[in-house]
Design brief:
By secondary structure, this protein is of the alpha+beta class. The protein is built from 11 helices and 26 strands. The longest helix is centred in the N-terminal third of the chain and has 17 residues. The radius of gyration is 23 Å and the shape is globular.
């Protein structure tokens, strides 16, 4: 373990709730797995090398040629840390690396408690708890805990390398706390490989371990009661701020099937399965948070749970779908997502994916903020009676704030990018009139920004929800992902040169014109097949039209 790089040591230490990495303090059985040959950086590099060679031998039709990228990466994989391998898989390997994972079915057929478990044969998935909470003095906090999993290689390929499905995982911990009237804190992300032995899942009842961090169900019958525990350090300033959550939820509202009965969406084997549970009830007898040395006893809270998994960046199993996708430049990565828990036990969740048409509002770092952005949103409304319906609406963003801090500026570079700072919604008549228009305002004055462990930046945190007349009508969470160009951070985290020339040579922001023309012709010749795939898809109605202003 003493030969591990500093970032990996920090992740192991934080996962075990240690401020500093101390091999002598690690239990002998844990240390033995961490020191095993299968968990070494050399072994990780060898596995990635084998995968790159496989990808070179199996190009994917109707997608951009990745040959030069793979040949360049072969020069850097003598040894790889878990985080470096994770960066490569999620950000650099392109469409061919998405083949071979479990496909997303056109009918979700979600069953519980089975589907609370992580789906280790899917490309990605996450368990996500967010919400607002209060102490006995009325002080308000926003809190987030997420376990984000990635299967590093397609499961059958991983098995050929001697990895089990569990060993093939890379899992990161996202932990953040905001203090109303204070500031926002994000713990530096923890990144763990399945081969470390620190990622474990128990099934009856369901318990998900990342070292000492955990999601623990206390019953075999369902999710509740459930306890979430997380610990980390915001290293944005010296000596760093310790964060911790130990919250038990006694119950939650009805399961909300996102998209079309859980498909969000399902298109030709790609997309995601997705459900939520709103209005998680905090148990005040055993719920605390820790902030900079203070343990805060929580008396109430309103939280939200998401579980989503699938092949979100998949290229499609059919040639015609891949040709359709790469007939034009790809849409930018990123989205805006919101959950609102409103008076009268009513909930709304909506989102808007980023579009090329709105590029003037992304990656903005100039001296003045962007102008007002107006985009359509779609999502789901859940009434007090637990009925659900599709909701349409409009989102207006007129207030912007700079992302001027980082959980560790030496590794996750400060971007100073403008991010949305308030959100004004107008929803359709599906929603009751008294909550059809509302404003979301963050509980802190700074950007609630953070980073994923692959370098992507987001701004996310608790918000107060008010009616047009200023009346407080609820709480929620607002999430804005990938407004910033963080390729320099991604390449640095991936152990690669992060010079502008190298970054640009390996970026995939545009579809080559020759490929686009060939793909257009192919789509025209296979129009009927494309229409049949569209007819078999589910959840497409939840995706918004291209915005215009």
């Amino acid at each position: 373990m003493t030969d591990m790089d500093r970032a990996t040591q920090d992740s192991i230490a934080t996962a075990l709730w240690m401020r500093e990495f101390d091999p002598a303090a690690i239990p002998a059985d844990v240390a033995a797995v961490l020191d095993s040959p299968k968990n070494s950086a050399v072994a990780m590099g060898q596995r990635m090398r084998a995968f790159l060679r496989y990808l070179l031998d199996h190009p994917l039709s109707h997608t951009p040629d990745m040959t030069k990228t793979y040949e360049r990466l072969l020069n850097f994989c003598d040894a790889l840390t878990p985080q470096q391998a994770y960066v490569w898989q999620t950000s650099l390997l392109g469409p061919p690396a998405t083949v071979g994972y479990d496909q997303v079915p056109a009918v979700a057929d979600l069953q519980f408690p089975r589907d609370h478990l992580p789906k280790v044969r899917s490309q990605v998935g996450w368990h996500f708890f967010v919400g607002s909470c209060w102490d006995a003095d009325g002080n308000e906090y926003g809190a987030e805990l997420m376990f984000f999993q990635t299967a590093l290689f397609p499961p059958d390929f991983a098995a050929g390398l001697g990895l089990t499905d569990d060993e093939n995982q890379i899992v990161e911990l996202q932990l953040a706390i905001s203090e109303k009237g204070g500031r926002h804190y994000q713990a530096e992300p923890v990144v763990l490989a399945g081969t470390s032995g620190l990622v474990r899942v128990e099934r009856e009842p369901f318990v998900y371990h990342l070292g000492r961090n955990e999601i623990r169900c206390h019953s075999t019958e369902g999710l509740f009661p459930v306890t979430i525990k997380g610990w980390g350090v915001d290293r944005g300033s010296e000596p760093g701020v310790e964060l911790g959550l130990d919250i038990t939820f006694s119950s939650g509202k009805e399961t909300l099937m996102q998209g079309e009965k859980g498909c969000m969406p399902s298109i030709d084997g790609t997309g995601s399965l997705y459900y939520s549970i709103p209005n998680l009830v905090l148990d005040p007898s055993c719920s605390t948070l820790t902030l900079d040395g203070r343990t805060v006893e929580l008396t109430s809270g309103t939280f939200w749970f998401d579980h989503q998994w699938g092949q979100l960046s998949g290229a499609g199993r059919s040639s015609v779908m891949r040709a359709a996708k790469y007939s034009t430049d790809p849409e930018p990565v990123g989205w805006d997502w919101f959950m609102a828990q409103l008076s009268g036990d009513r909930q709304v969740t909506v989102f808007s994916p980023h579009r090329n048409a709105m590029s003037a509002f992304y990656e903005q770092t100039g001296p003045t903020p962007p102008p007002t952005m107006t985009v359509p949103v779609k999502g789901t409304y859940m009434g007090a009676d637990r009925s659900t319906s599709l909701v349409h609406g409009t989102l207006e963003i007129a207030d912007w704030v700079r992302a001027d801090h980082s959980p560790n500026p030496t590794r996750y570079f400060v971007t100073n990018t403008w991010y949305p700072n308030s959100w004004s919604f107008t929803l359709d008549e599906t929603v009751p009139e008294d909550i059809r228009e509302f404003l979301m305002t963050p509980i802190v004055d700074q950007a609630q920004s953070g980073f994923f462990a692959n370098g992507a930046q987001y701004a996310e945190g608790a918000v107060v929800i008010t009616a047009p007349d200023g009346t407080d009508i609820g709480r929620g969470f607002a999430e804005s992902v990938s407004y910033a160009d963080t390729r320099d951070t991604t390449f640095a985290l991936g152990g690669l040169p992060h010079t502008p020339e190298h970054i640009e040579s390996m970026s995939m922001k545009r579809t080559p014109k020759a490929l686009a023309l060939l793909n257009m012709a192919y789509v025209l010749a296979h129009k009927k097949e494309l229409e049949e795939i569209g007819a078999e898809s589910a959840g497409m109605q939840f995706f918004v039209d291209t915005p215009t202003t």
